[in-house]
Amino acid sequence: MRTAIRTMLAAGVLLATATLWLAPGLHAQPGRKAMAVEVTGASEPVLCAEKDNVTVNLASKAVRRFTIEAVHPAYMGTLQRDSFEADWTGCTAPGDPRPEATTAAPPPPRRITLYEEYDLWVVGQIYPSFWRPATATVRIGDRVEKGLHLLQVWLRRPMGGEEVLVLYPQDGYWRLRPRAPASLAPTAFGSSFLLGPVEVDERPIVKIKEVAFDPKSRTFTLAFERGGSATVVM
């Protein structure tokens, strides 16, 4: 029921931001030497349940490899219903997200299957509009795609598939979803995070120049617009 990725970065300052949707657990791995990491809080109190407001920044010049893991909360086994419905209560402050003003459904995104095998497939989506320009290039094998707003990685489960990881190439946001128990399939998203040189442009983002995915090794290779690179292994 866990989803984990291991990251390896090229020389330079490691800078990551995690926007926490579920409280994560931090675990020291046996045999690993502890290293100092600068941690700064950038959270803000809000009343709107739909606004990302809990943010933790981590930075270090020494760290070259670390693991991010999405795990269900301890109370997961007691849930009777896992709701995906939005809660707009309290979303009245300036800058708060709002429900769509129109009752008409927005145009669906264009969906492209980029890679498919029995146990794993990768899907790209292009939205009718996105808040940032689509400049990042996506490569899977010999296939090159431009203009993708979302990448989804799906794994096979009994009687269907399960989305376990998404990446927004145009603003650098990742989300990990733990594998769902049989009684609650699928589950709502867990934590989201940014990996790489974080900068603020209306909101924290990471500008990715190119992302390449190797399905056989389940490895992402990132090249950043500001220079430097990272390898992300599922």
What is this structure's SSE topology?
Layout: E1 3-9, E2 14-19, E3 38-41, E4 55-60, E5 65-70, E6 110-116, E7 120-126, E8 137-140, E9 143-146, E10 150-157, E11 160-168, E12 173-176, E13 192-195, E14 198-201, E15 203-206, E16 208-214, E17 219-224, E18 229-233
Parallel strand pairs: 8-16
Antiparallel strand pairs: 1-5, 1-18, 2-4, 2-13, 3-4, 6-7, 7-10, 8-9, 10-11, 11-12, 12-13, 14-15, 16-17, 17-18
Written overview of the protein:
The protein is an all-beta fold and 234 residues long. Helices cover 0% and strands 44% of the residues. The chain has no helices and 18 strands. The strands form three sheets. A nine-stranded antiparallel sheet has the order 3-4-2-13-12-11-10-7-6, with no helix packed on it. Strands 5-1-18-17-16-8-9 form a seven-stranded mixed sheet, with no helix packed on it. A two-stranded antiparallel ribbon has the order 14-15. Strand 11 and strand 12 form a beta hairpin. About 4% of the residues have low confidence.
Going by helix content, strand content and strand pairing, the class is mainly beta
Mean pLDDT: 82
> How is the largest sheet built, in terms of strand order?
3-4-2-13-12-11-10-7-6
How helix-rich are the residues, as a percent range?
Answer: under 10%
Q: Whole-number radius of gyration?
A: 18 Å
Shape: globular
| Strand coverage percent | 35-45%
SSE ordering: EEEEEEEEEEEEEEEEEE
The major β-sheet equals: 9 strands, antiparallel
Gap from first CA to last CA: 14 Å
Please, how many helices?
Answer: 0
Number of strands: 18
